[in-house]
Amino acid sequence: MLPSSALSPTPLSWDITINAFLQLKRLSGFSPSTLEWYEVTFRLLKRFHDEHQLLCPSPCPCPPEHLQAFLWWLSRKDRPITVPTKFPALHAFFRWLAKENLRADNPITKVTPPKVNEPLPKTVSEDHLAKTLNAIPLFRFAGLRDATLFCLAFDSGARLSELLSLRLCNLELLSRCGKVKGKGNKERMMDFGTLTSQLLSRYLTACLTRLRALSQDSFLFLTDDGRPISKRQGQDRWKKWQRGAGLTPLPFHGLRHGFARMWLLKGGDAFSLQLLLGQYEC
After folding, report:
1. Measuring CA to CA, which residue among 12, 4, 134 is closest to residue 61?
2. The 3-state secondary structure of the chain, one letter per residue
3. Residue 163: which of 240, 236, 252 has the closest Cα?
4. At residue 268, does pLDDT exceed 90?
5. How far is the CA of 100 from the CAs of 19, 89, 103, 122, 219, in angstroms?
6. What pTM was computed for the model?
7. What is residue 112's predicted lDDT score, i.e. its pLDDT?
8. Helix 126-134 vs helix 141-156: angle between axes, to the nearest 10 degrees?
9. For residues 142 and 224, is the Cβ–Cβ distance under 8 A?
10. Cα angle for residues 220, 275, 144 (degrees, 5° grid)
11. Residue 221's pLDDT band (boundaries 50, 70, 90)?
12. How far is CA 200 from CA 67, 99, 149, 204, in A?
């Protein structure tokens, strides 16, 4: 006869529960980006429990107070504007646990949804960018370089620091994509459109004509004498051309917000947007 301990059910761990939920959603046809965003949220929740030594061996006994504290913790360490996107993931996860009778209730229903109180970011519109580009003399090397940098930032949503660290080997003009290295040294792919690709091609031709000695390891955005341009130079050039167009200067980061705005206006989902912008943690 088996000992009584062998007949008792094995308690579900965080990893087993999370993996079961993700596998179910994968079989239901959820996109890889949505699955990744689910997993990022749940791993953060587990990490929060570990760091604060909360006695929850799994999400099954997790009380609403822990979830409320988790959202507050995220608002302190993460960008507050990204916190509300994690709330639906938690709701879906704990609703599934209740449906599968792995817990008696859905604790997220007793949690106050997070509010975003920070001011709206300064966003560059298509019209603002077009007016700035019209003020740039594209027949000059520096002007062509600046216009290419601005268009790539608006078209891809990449950070200025990510774009300035691009090398020629990171770029695929035919596929209209590139590989950038973001915060935490994490790599991701960025895409850009046909017009930006044409501008990049024109700029690279100018680079070869002017500098000649380029290799696959050369930085993409260079000064007149072939040195990588600095972040301060990129910001100053953006401000200069906006003023030249008679506009009130917006921060360079506004190009990134402009990309996000256009993505959402065209029907893109928030989960995929966070991944495209590199705003996630594991």
Report:
1. 12
2. CCCHHHHCCCCCCHHHHHHHHHHHHHHCCCCHHHHHHHHHHHHHHHHHHHHCCCCCCCCCCCCHHHHHHHHHHHHHHCCHHHHHHHHHHHHHHHHHHHHCCCCCCCHHHHCCCCCCCCCCCCCCCHHHHHHHHHCCCCCCHHHHHHHHHHHHHHHHCCCHHHHHCCEHHHEECCCCEEEEECHHHCEEEEECCHHHHHHHHHHHHHHHHHHCCCCCCCECCECCCCCECCHHHHHHHHHHHHHHCCCCCCCCHHHHHHHHHHHHHCCCCHHHHHHHCCCCCC
3. 252
4. no
5. 15, 17, 8, 44, 53
6. 0.59
7. 85
8. 170
9. yes
10. 25
11. very high
12. 47, 52, 9, 6
Domains of the chain, earliest start first: 12-110 (1.10.150.130), 126-268 (1.10.443.10)
User: Are the C-beta atoms of residues 156 and 192 closer than 8 Å to each other?
Assistant: yes
Q: Using H for helix, E for strand and C for coil, what is the string for 95-110?
A: HHHHHCCCCCCCHHHH
Chain segment 103-132, per-residue pLDDT in tens: 999 999 899 877 655 555 689 999 999 999
Neighbours of 81 (CB within 10 A): 15
Output the CA torsion 187→193→195→200 (10° steps): 20
CA proximity to 249, closest of 165, 167, 131: 131
170, two tokens = 């990171």
Q: Which candidate, 143, 188, 147, 144, places its Cα nearest to that of 165?
A: 188
Q: Rounded to 10 degrees, what is the CA torsion of 182, 169, 137, 241?
A: 10
Hunting for tokens 């994968």 — which residue is that? 26
